[in-house]
Amino acid sequence: MNQSPRFPAEWEPQSAVLIAWPHAGTDWADRLAEVEGTYVALVAAISRRQAVLICVADAALQDHACGLLSAAGVDLARLRFERLPYDDTWLRDSGPITLRDGGRYRMLDFHFTAWGGKFEAGLDDQIVATLFERGLFQHASRERIDFALEGGGIETDGNGTLLSTWTCLHERHPEASREQITRQLQTWLHQDRTLWLDHGYLEGDDTDAHIDTLARFAGRDAIVYQGCDDPGDTHYAELGAMATELAAFRTRDGQPYRLFELPWAQPILDEGRRLAASYANFLIINGALLMPAYGDAADVRAAAVLAEAFPALEIVPVPCRALIWQNGSLHCITMQLPEGLLA
């Protein structure tokens, strides 16, 4: 019996996580050493459990990254480096969205526009094609789709239900109706239900409200979401409205979702600019959940909430205060690759 393609959930078995190392030619230049510390901690955490596929700009950057990682005790045998040009390091949005198709894989290569043309993205939009053409992936096909969509803008439960924010998709495609976009996404991603959030945003986020900064599936019957318990905060009303929307959603079986509210970190400012410190921007790998930590008292409470939502996973904090300076966090710089995909 033939199986139709399926969009796997993030908690399903993985072969590797794909990242791109920051360098002086990216927007990280002014705080490169600080952000490299986050990348070292991230690679160390992932490589204890699975491989890491690391894009680097050239041989010199590879040698530099290897030196930092080796000094931190990382097993370099768990790492694979690929040299290619890139504009920046947000692989969640420029990397492949991979479907399982029986014993094969279908790598969807959506058009990456740097969040609606906000930045240069010509090199990043070629990353998937370049890696694919080098033969890195086995039992896989690549499908180029001329539609602006970022991986951070969608979330699946692995069972045909998609979660997204209308703000983001409408901004990318203002001429299209909700019905049209729903139909296109469900066709490409092989989903049969879409849950749209009309509320929720974070100051300092330039993705137009990516779902991975706001709400994430924790199994087929549960959702973890970013809350705000400070009535004096500018996010209070909007995130409260989002929580109300989530409470009204129903599972495939018609039941309310079990909801887990993440705590609210105190405002983090950079030269007066509010930064988007979301605990929802976590990454799941084999056997563990890597949680963005911001050096705030709420870090401990966030870890406790995530441990309750994902009792089978080890919760591993990764320092991410450096990342939010450039408007993203842990999930934004990574893309998981399903088990069996990496050659």
How many β-strand stretches?
Answer: 18
Strand count, sense and barrel status of the largest sheet are: 4 strands, mixed
Distance between the termini: 26 Å
* Helix run count: 10
- Sheet/helix structural class: alpha/beta
CATH first level: Alpha Beta
Strand proportion: 25-35%
CATH topology: L-arginine/glycine Amidinotransferase, Chain A
Give the overall pLDDT as a whole number.
97
Radius of gyration: 19 Å
The CATH architecture can be given as 5-stranded Propeller
Report the uncertain regions. none
Give the strand order, joined by hyphens, for the main sheet.
3-2-1-18
Please provide the ordered H/E string of secondary-structure elements: EHEHEHEEHHEEEHHEEEHEEEEEHEHE
Describe the structure.
- This protein is an alpha/beta fold and 343 residues long.
- It has a single domain (14-338), classed as L-arginine/glycine Amidinotransferase, Chain A (5-stranded Propeller).
- Helices cover 27% and strands 26% of the residues.
- The strands form six sheets. Strands 3-2-1-18 form a four-stranded mixed β-sheet.
- The longest helix is centred in the N-terminal third of the chain and has 16 residues, at 32-47.
- The mean pLDDT is 97.
Architecture blueprint of SSEs:
Layout: E1 14-20, H1 32-47, E2 51-56, H2 59-71, E3 79-83, H3 91-94, E4 97-101, E5 104-111, H4 114-117, H5 127-133, E6 140-148, E7 154-156, E8 161-165, H6 166-172, H7 178-189, E9 193-197, E10 215-217, E11 222-226, H8 236-248, E12 258-262, E13 269-270, E14 273-274, E15 283-285, E16 288-293, H9 298-309, E17 314-319, H10 321-324, E18 335-338
Parallel strand pairs: 1-2, 2-3, 5-6, 8-9, 11-12, 16-17
Antiparallel strand pairs: 1-18, 4-5, 7-8, 10-11, 13-14, 15-16
